[in-house]
Write a structure and sequence with these properties.
Layout: E1 3-8, H1 15-21, E2 27-31, E3 36-40, H2 45-48, E4 55-58, E5 70-73, H3 80-85, E6 88-91, H4 93-101, H5 105-129, H6 134-147
Parallel strand pairs: 1-5, 3-4, 5-6
Antiparallel strand pairs: 1-2, 2-3
Length: 175
């Protein structure tokens, strides 16, 4: 590939986008092996500027048609609209997954910090569990995570009773 393109859209979020940009903005990470860029809308521009990526451009989707060369894409997560705008692509989905499996010393430190915060939070959350519905406990968990200046890594899952065996249950008003 001559460049890589990773799209993070509300309708199709891609964890690779956050991995490479440390941002959750709706946009496209584009790297031509010279300078990383984030392409986004004017509405998301200011939020995208908070990423470590210095070159942020507000563009319209039609401008993607001007990209030249073979563009490496995460075919598993790319919208049809963006895919059709690119002239020549190569699926790099497996390579992206492989890159994320090997943790740098910084990533290992971040994981250890997340575990330490979770260890502090768990006793407080556990004591609230018997007095809340699934929905309320989800709110308590997210509130406590936010108090530490953190964000959940994925949607908070709270499930009670027989439903607790469902891995992606959406919280309800079950006690």
């Amino acid at each position: 590939a001559d460049a890589i393109l990773i799209a993070n859209l509300e309708t199709s979020p891609d964890a690779n986008f956050f991995y490479f940009t440390n941002s959750t903005v709706d946009g496209i990470f584009f790297y031509d092996f010279e300078e990383p860029k984030i392409f986004t809308s004017e509405m998301e521009y200011a939020r995208a500027r908070k990423s470590w990526v210095r070159n942020v451009e507000a563009i319209k989707p039609q401008q993607l048609e001007k990209l030249k060369g073979t563009i490496g894409i995460n075919k598993k997560r790319l919208s049809v609209d963006i895919f059709q705008r690119l002239k020549k692509t190569a699926d790099i989905s497996a390579a992206l997954e492989q890159a994320r499996t090997i943790k740098s010393p910084y990533e290992i430190l971040q994981l250890k910090m997340a575990c330490a915060i979770t260890k502090k939070l768990w006793p407080k959350i556990e004591s609230d569990a018997s007095r809340c519905t699934e929905h309320e406990l989800k709110g308590v968990i997210e509130f406590r995570i936010n108090k530490y200046g953190c964000e959940p890594a994925f949607p908070t899952i709270v499930a009670a009773g027989i439903i607790s065996g469902y891995p992606h249950h959406t919280p309800t008003d079950t006690q």
